[in-house]
Design brief:
The chain is built from 8 helices and no strands. It is mostly helical. It is globular.
Length: 199
């Protein structure tokens, strides 16, 4: 049974994640890992990798999906609501405030240069997070083949500006993973039947 945690601690943790992460869901993964997995040990790094995979395969931003999952794991339905509210409130307040003064805000040259700097930093954060996730994955020939095919496919799509959604890579990966799982289950069943017959 998972130990119950303070709803206030859960809320403040995800409020911090929502408030201090720039660059969207992918950039948030690094802070989620640091706060929720490394410091508080609410979830393992393997669970975080699973959350990101599920979040990519289902509707909704990664940060919100992860907050909902971790909140539910810690305190059930009320925990999922509290954690999700914590991660959403800062973004909502900031975006709502900026939207009221957007034209004025973007007219300042210093803001434009700040955004250029933020874009570079966010790119590095996403790259670092991706590398850490790759290191946490299982390293079988199938995983490396799928990884290489995905990288090559996405690179070619971007180079030639092809109209092809990256969602298809996720779906193909899911189908191949399911196919391999069914093959393994069938092999285990056959082996157990042979073992039983040999007794």
């Amino acid at each position: 049974m998972t130990k119950k945690h303070s709803l206030w601690e859960l809320f403040i943790t995800y409020l911090k994640i929502g408030l201090f992460t720039f660059g969207g869901g992918y950039a948030m993964i690094a802070l989620i890992e640091d706060e929720v997995s490394t410091k508080k040990k609410w979830i393992s790094k393997e669970e975080l990798a699973d959350i990101v995979t599920i979040a990519e395969s289902t509707p909704g931003p990664i940060a919100i999906n992860s907050a909902t999952y971790v909140g539910y794991k810690m305190n059930g339905v009320i925990g999922s609501v509290v954690a999700t509210a914590g991660v959403v409130i800062p973004s909502f307040v900031i975006i709502y405030t900026i939207s009221m003064f957007f034209d004025l805000f973007m007219s300042f040259e210093i803001v434009e240069y700040a955004f250029h700097g933020i874009k570079c930093a966010v790119g590095l954060i996403i790259l670092r997070t991706g590398w850490k996730m790759i290191k946490s994955f299982k390293r079988t020939p199938l995983h490396w083949i799928l990884f290489a095919v995905s990288i090559i496919g996405i690179t070619l799509i971007n180079l030639f500006a092809l109209k092809f959604s990256s969602v298809y890579f996720v779906l193909v990966g899911a189908v191949i993973g399911l196919f391999v799982y069914l093959l393994d289950r069938n092999k285990e069943k056959v082996d157990s039947e042979k073992g039983g017959a040999g007794k």
